[in-house]
Structures are given as C-alpha cells and as structure tokens.
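hey so i finally got around to running the thing on that chain from the lab meeting. sorry it took forever, my laptop kept dying and i had to restart like 3 times. anyway pasting the input first so we r on the same page abt which one it is
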Amino acid sequence: MRHTTAKEKVDIINSYLALTSMIAIAKHYQMSRQGVYQIIKAAGIDTRKTGGIEVSCYCCQKVIKKPRCQVRKAKHLFCNQDCYDAYLKAGNGAGPLIINRQGARIARKIIAQYFDIQPSHIPHHKDRNQLNNVPQNLMVFRCQGDHVRYHRGFEVEPLWDGSLLP
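ok and heres what got predicted. didnt touch it at all, straight out
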C-alpha cells in the first residue's frame, strides 16, 4: 500500500469537496478508490449517497438536496419539473419546445445532399425553428446525448455544420 503524505491527504479531501469523483482522485494519486474513501471518512466527511449536497434551484433559488453525482454532471439544477419547464419556456435552455417531426425529416433529406447522415445522427436547427431548413441553419450531432449537451450549454463539436458550406 502506498504511503500518503499529510499534504496529499488535504489535497484529496479538497478535491472530493470540489466534486471530483473518487475514481478520478484515486487515479490521480495512484491509489485505490477504497484508499481515497478511507482518507475522506477519517476526515469526518459524510460520503453517503442518500444525504446529498445542498444547492439552489436555478429557477426559483429554493435550496434543495441533490446527489453529488448530479451536482457534478449538471450545469443547472432544478427543484421540480415546473421550474425546468419555466426555464425552457423563458428561452434559456433548449428554448421553446417546437414539436414538428416533419421538420426533422425534411432537415435529414437536405443534410443528406451534403453529408452522409446515419440513422443515429441528430439534425439540429440553429434558430430552433424546425420549419427553417436552409442548410446554413442546420447542424448534425453524433447522438441525442451530444444534442442535449449542446442545448444545455456544453461545448460539443457537431459532425457537420451547414454554415461552413461555401
């Protein structure tokens, strides 16, 4: 078993409190996940998944408890579906929900003229208007997960971007 210095123990604890996963900490310090757990537990930090971390709802600022993994992964947290819907309706996230399957089908046909689009690829309308199928308004993402991450504000590289057409 590897000996950990006092400074490393403090760094491990600070990393955990900064929402770094135990697996990432263990990999960084070249030790087992159980070793990290023992250091954190010895410092008196609650590692139970049931407790959660107190955070504020992005919409109404109400204090809520969420599991550490959700806090680590999400850009915005909401206390309930109503707050999330209000966020979308205000145009902050994915924008107003326009449900028009025909727009997606037409977009796929237009994209196919320029790019070999596969069934798993997801077309995206930059202006969020599914009736605007001008190639410069279209992008293609690898999967629905990439598409959702893009809408949530994360940097995701599209497979194809119509605005780059000559």
